[in-house]
Amino acid sequence: MASSNLTDTNTPSPLVTARSLPPDQISPKAVVLRVLQVKNVFRRNWKLLVILIALGSAIGLIYDLMHKKRITYTGSIMFNLGGGSSGNGFGELGQLAGAFGLSSGAPDANIFVGDNFLIYAQSRPVVEKTLMQHDTIRGKDTLLVNYYIRHSGIRDKEWEDNDTLRAFYFKKSKKPEEYNKLEQIAMADIYGRIKGEIAIKQPERKSSFMELSCFMEDELLTATFLSRHLKTIEEDYQRKQTKKTREMYDMLNSRADSIARILNGTENQLAQFMDQNQQVVVAQARIKENKLSRNSTFLTTLYYQALQQADNMRLSLIRETPLFTIIEPVSLPLFREVLSTQGLQIGSVISFILAIIIIFIRETYRSIMREE
User: Fold this and answer.
1) Distances (CA, A) of 188 to 128, 176, 179
2) Which range of residues forms the domain containing residue 166?
3) CB 198 within 8 Å of CB 212
4) The predicted structure's pLDDT at residue 306
5) How confident is the model at residue 32, as a pLDDT?
6) Do 221 and 312 fall within a single domain?
7) Which 3 state secondary structure label does DSSP give 135?
8) Helix ranges, 122-242 (H)
9) What digits encode the pLDDT tens for the residues 222-253?
10) C-alpha–C-alpha distance, residues 23 and 32, integer Å
């Protein structure tokens, strides 16, 4: 009996060869059956699939026809930002700072480094300074922010349902602290739109060149904004970079003016005293004359030293000022691009996904009813 059992175990049989596959493997037969099932499902539901896709595409096409195509003009300016001199070039500046009890080092001109400059160039204060400047556009002196309101498309999109803003414009150039409530709201909307229209980047990682670019719906607006914005960045950046040196330069000029006023007063007193006491030989009078003469000589020396220090500071200010060099200016005509809506494509994709879901639910329900 045991021998019979051993023989049955070792001898192949049809039952052993019909062993099922592991769960992680799929047989070719199962793949073919699945493909046939999908084919049958498509054959039963192809009309529904076509109808839903056609309906979604028609809705998307109607949306495209009802919305205007957006035309944009793209321009760019490539420039190089050269840093001002520092270090040994400010020997006179370091000595002068020490004379006033300040740090012996030269003022640091590199306030913005790396990506900080890229963020700064797109910041709201700098953009607002650009918009609040006048420029000649189409032969007319125009406030740039008003030209932007009229030609950027903001009235037809962001302000479409607001009659107050659609009729709004700035009466004159203002600083941010002078805005009224309506002007604050308008400028916030304008900056929010411009922030998505401008960009500044470094074309090559190993290069020091920068590229300022923007795209807007008016060609002259794009070109004018780029040129004016770069000029604003240059002026504002230089003013911030040289703030310490300019303050010290102004202080030296003020000091030289004060010494000059005192010197003039002393010289006038000396001249009057000498005119009134030409024949006097009294020792006291001679002492007063010598004192006035000595004060005049001393003040004259201080005045010329102050002038020399102010002149050295002015030269330091020139060396410290960053230099903007335009490599590739903006040139007309700009690149024109027509941006159409994607209603047809989006409608087709959404309707296809919706059709698959409906067919899946329909087939599932049919399978359940068949089993019952």
Assistant:
1) 10, 11, 11
2) 70-242+325-338
3) yes
4) 80
5) 67
6) no
7) strand
8) 124-131, 144-151, 163-166, 181-195, 219-241
9) 999 999 999 998 888 878 777 777 778 788 88
10) 17
